[in-house]
């Protein structure tokens, strides 16, 4: 029972970390792009030309 509880806690913490890191990723990636590129390719690190 305690192993299951610990496993669920760890999975919850990992899920929370992923949820928090997605907006941080978007901010970092889009910080160095001009606005038109952000609108066209918000998730791309470098859009292909």
Secondary structure layout:
Elements (H helix, E strand, L loop, with lengths): L1 H29 L4 H6 L9
Key terms:
single chain; 49 residues; mainly alpha; rod-shaped
Q: Compute the gyration radius: what is it?
A: 17 Å
Low-confidence stretches: none
Helix content: over 70%
The geometry reads as rod-shaped
Structural class: mainly alpha
What does this structure look like?
By secondary structure, this protein is mainly α. It is 71% helix and 0% strand. It has 2 helices and no strands. The radius of gyration is 17 Å and the shape is rod-shaped.
Short description:
The protein is 71% helix and 0% strand. It contains 2 helices and no strands.
């Amino acid at each position: 029972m305690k192993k299951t509880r610990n496993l669920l806690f760890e999975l919850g913490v990992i899920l929370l970390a992923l949820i928090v890191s997605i907006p941080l990723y978007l901010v970092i990636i889009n910080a160095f792009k001009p606005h038109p590129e952000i609108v066209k390719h918000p998730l791309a690190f470098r859009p292909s030309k």
